[in-house]
Amino acid sequence: MFDILKLLIYILPAYVANATPVVLGGGPPIDLGFHWLDKKRLYGDGKTIRGFIGGFLAGFLVGAIESIFLGEIYLFSGLLLSFGTMFGDLLGSFIKRRLDIPRGQPMFILDQLFFLLVALIFTLPVYPLELIEIAALFVITGFLHVLFNVLANKLGLKSVPW
Ligand code: CTP
Ligand code: MG
Measured in angstroms, how far is the CA atom of residue 2 from the centroid of ligand 2? Predict the structure, then answer.
């Protein structure tokens, strides 16, 4: 059996990077209002510069703290997980806008798991996982994402439960 706790510690920077922009974000959007060839916004107003930088730094900080106790590899994996998460989040919004899904409207599976896919693509070269561990991460992340978004909605941090 793989070690679930170790897996959660490993992925924590991605979760923190994904979760913190809702409180750290605001201000000008990353696409600065630009529109794509289809005349729709590149990413939309839900992706702000502050949210991107704040989420990245928060996730990176978690990885940096982990690395003090668990070794240097967590500094690198934390860096790549945090950047990959924020990059994947942008890519996800890019896809949603192209599919004509308005900012803030849900796209199930993509909203919950796309950031993880991109983060892992960035990180696996420096921190390889077994296939069963990757599969477990997708299942756990899908479950936790739904749980935490419902919670954030109930706490008044998000206006929608997704
Ligand atoms: N957020 C931000 N900057 C980011 C990512 C998120 O400021 N790079 C903030 C925004 O206030 C956003 C909220 O976190 O509304 C929730 O994030 P998310 O659900 O990813 O964005 P949505 O508003 O749902 O937009 P989209 O439809 O593009 O996913
Ligand atoms: Mg959303």
Answer: 31
